[in-house]
Write a structure and sequence with these properties.
240 residues; alpha+beta; Immunoglobulin-like; Alpha-D-Glucose-1,6-Bisphosphate, Chain A, domain 4; 2 domains; 7-stranded antiparallel beta sheet; 4-stranded antiparallel beta sheet; 4 helices; 37% strand
Length: 240
């Protein structure tokens, strides 16, 4: 009888232990399943959303943070708008976050390869008419440089070298700067030949105060300078 009593107690104890472990497992599973989720919206709705470098949708996305993840890198991009990259922190008290993209004014006021005018940061060759007087050539080059850029940093007639100062054009959120450089090519020909380059760079406006390191090459040229190459062609009588 005593033996049966002991067996019954052991069975009950074992059952209680199993039930306790089961409840603990369920509780732990429930805790693990409660992932922190942040709903992200972006305007305009057609904007692409990138989560830690991967494209995940347009307009809206639910960010599910992993246990060991403190933040996510979100990038939003849309044609005609400035691309925006932000860090979304898991500890952000808001469960719904909205981001607005700003209109890309620099793009609206510039031209590039997609517009049929690939002019930025590349050399063009300008060949003068035969027997054109050297003084006339120089005057025309200087006139175009000063008319379009006002300030000239380098003017070396003997070397045939002209370089304008940077011309800065600020927009609401960006600054574009442009300058022109002209260099004489010493070719074995009766015609003078020059290399011309339009340098174009862009920076975020809130970074400009930090200097040159804020600027990066911009593959577009502001419309106000797009005619410079053709001006040189017409004035000196050459083709590209």
């Amino acid at each position: 009888m005593e033996y049966n009593w002991i067996v019954k107690i052991m069975r009950k104890t074992f059952t209680l232990v199993i039930m306790g472990l089961a409840l603990l497992f369920v509780g732990l599973s429930s805790c693990k399943s409660r992932a922190i989720v942040k709903k992200v919206y972006v305007v305009p709705e057609k904007a692409k959303i990138f989560y830690n470098g991967h494209e995940v949708g347009n307009g809206t996305y639910d960010v599910k943070f992993k246990d060991d993840e403190d933040f996510a890198v979100m990038k939003f991009e849309c044609p005609g708008y400035i691309t925006r990259t932000v860090k979304l922190f898991k500890e952000n008290p808001k469960n719904t976050i909205s981001y607005d993209l700003f209109v890309d004014e620099a793009m609206l006021n510039s031209v590039g390869a997609e517009d049929g005018l690939d002019l930025a940061n590349k050399y063009f060759t300008i060949t003068c008419k035969k027997d054109m007087d050297e003084d006339i050539v120089w005057k025309r080059l200087m006139n175009i440089a000063v008319t379009n850029f006002e300030n000239v940093e380098v003017r070396d007639k003997g070397a045939g070298w002209i370089r304008t100062a940077w011309h800065e054009d600020p927009f609401t959120y960006q600054v574009v700067r442009t300058r022109m450089e002209i260099q004489l090519q010493f070719a074995d020909t009766e015609q003078k030949t020059y290399r011309v380059k339009l340098w174009s760079e862009i920076a975020d406006k809130d970074c400009v105060g930090y200097g040159d390191e804020c600027y990066v090459k911009y593959n577009r040229v502001l419309r106000k300078f797009a005619q410079v190459i053709s001006e040189l062609q017409v004035s000196l009588g050459s083709n590209l």
